[in-house]
Design brief:
Layout lengths: L3 E5 L3 H13 L5 E6 L3 E3 L4 H5 L9 E3 L9 E4 L2 E5 L4 E4 L2 E4 L2 E4 L4 E2 L7 H4 L1 E2 L3 H11 L5 E7 L9 H15 L6 E6 L11 H13 L3 E3 L4 E5 L4 E4 L4 E3 L2 E5 L2 E2 L2 H5 L23 E3 L18 H19 L11 E9 L2 E8 L7 E8 H18 L1
Parallel strand pairs: 1-2, 1-9, 2-5, 9-20, 11-18, 12-13, 12-18, 13-14
Antiparallel strand pairs: 3-4, 6-7, 7-8, 10-19, 15-16, 16-17, 21-22, 22-23
Helix pairs in contact: 1-8
Length: 383
């Protein structure tokens, strides 16, 4: 008798899990993907959309296209999850599965900080990046601030990439002499989970471009009239142009299902991504996986990709009556755009002990080209 595997979420983790399961399982078994949005958005490319180097249609693909690969696509809101029964209510209709993969991602909550939405541009949403692109082209004088509003947040290199790319954009437009660029963040250093050496190297890259870096600044509110950011340490910072990374949180439907732990995220086995409920797994940004250094595993697409591959392989093996052997090892990598057509590349093992072992390759044009090629490969191969 055929089994049903239901994947919740059409981001990187969800698409990888569903696609791999469909390749590994015979057609008697169903692979169902549930997604609220009509399109899959390749979020790493929002940085390029911000600069006008991409249009929305160049970085998104219809989720419905997955049906051509034998994946059943259900469009709608996940209204309730019963992990004990592996049951999900979508658009008022309950559906059950033999296996459940939760890849819903993190919910963005900029409204939780007073004044933030009204004062700035959301770097992490399509609408925000589009508005930022339009406004950026007109900004010629004043103080540009990149604000990380809370931790954790996905793609931990993104705000630093954005700051360096926007600085480079000011140079290209001939206005750099009239613009100051600053980064404010509650973090002790950039990508602290990658270790002190990588954090130091990235900070040096940022400061080498004349960008002010201000760690351990946690925003409490933004005064839109005075264009002033208030921080928990009692200091303030003025701005003329504000770009922000919004607070992230687990969605209410995941919390109501009893899936979140003390961290506020879904707790899983760090190698199998299994939750406390039999047959229920979680991958990507919705998970909270503690590391040996006391910090959580970063939320990043490349890690969601690796986790989804492991979950898909193990579910498929179990359905076929084989031993589940795949294990997520904590390895990850990412390109780091710095402007001027160059990018660095960080890679290594976040599960290493006593601390993650991550190395950062110096920026170069070939690495930037590598990121361009990967973007095209992802969008072409998955859809």
């Amino acid at each position: 008798m055929g089994k049903t595997v239901m994947v919740l979420g059409g981001g990187i983790g969800g698409v990888v899990a569903a696609s791999r399961l469909r390749k590994l399982l015979a057609r008697e078994h169903r692979v169902v993907l549930v997604e609220r949005e009509a399109d899959h958005l390749f979020q790493p490319s929002l940085l390029w959309l911000m600069l006008g180097w991409r249009t929305p249609d160049q970085i998104r693909r219809p989720i419905a296209r997955l049906a051509r690969r034998g994946i059943e696509v259900v469009r709608g809101n996940v209204e309730r999850i019963d992990p004990a029964r592996r049951a999900v209510v979508v658009n008022g209709k309950e559906q059950t599965a033999d296996y459940l993969v939760i890849a819903i991602g993190a919910e963005l909550a900029p409204e939780t900080i007073p004044g933030l939405v009204q004062a700035g541009h959301n770097l992490y949403s399509l609408a925000g990046a589009q508005a930022l692109s339009t406004a950026r082209a007109k900004f010629r004088r004043g103080r540009l601030v990149l604000l990380v509003s809370a931790i954790p947040f996905k793609c931990p290199a993104a705000p630093y990439e954005a700051a360096m790319l926007l600085e480079d954009d000011c140079r290209r437009r001939g206005v750099r002499a009239d613009v100051t660029v600053d980064v404010y963040t509650p973090e002790p250093g950039p990508i602290a989970t990658a270790g002190p050496e990588v954090s130091k190297q990235l900070r040096q890259m940022v400061e080498a471009k004349g960008i002010g870096y201000h760690p351990e600044h946690a925003v409490t509110q933004v005064d839109t009239d005075k264009r002033l950011i208030h921080f928990a340490n009692g200091t303030t910072a003025g701005f003329d142009f504000l770009v922000y990374v919004p607070p992230h949180r687990a969605s209410q439907v995941v919390k109501d299902a009893g899936l979140t732990g003390p961290s506020g995220w879904v707790g899983v086995d760090r190698t199998t991504l299994a939750t406390n409920f039999p047959g229920v797994y979680a991958v990507g940004d919705i998970t909270g996986i503690p590391l040996a250094i006391g910090k959580p595993l970063p939320k990043a697409g490349v890690l969601a990709h690796g986790q989804a591959e492991v979950v898909a392989r193990n579910i498929a093996a179990e359905i076929r009556g084989e031993r589940a052997r795949a294990a997520f090892t904590g390895h990850g990598a990412c390109f780091i755009e710095i402007g001027d057509g160059r990018a660095g590349y960080g890679s290594g093992n976040f599960y290493a002990e006593p601390a993650p072992r991550i190395a950062l390759r110096p920026p170069g044009r070939l690495l930037h080209l590598g990121k361009v090629i990967y973007e095209k490969f992802w969008l072409a191969s998955r859809f």
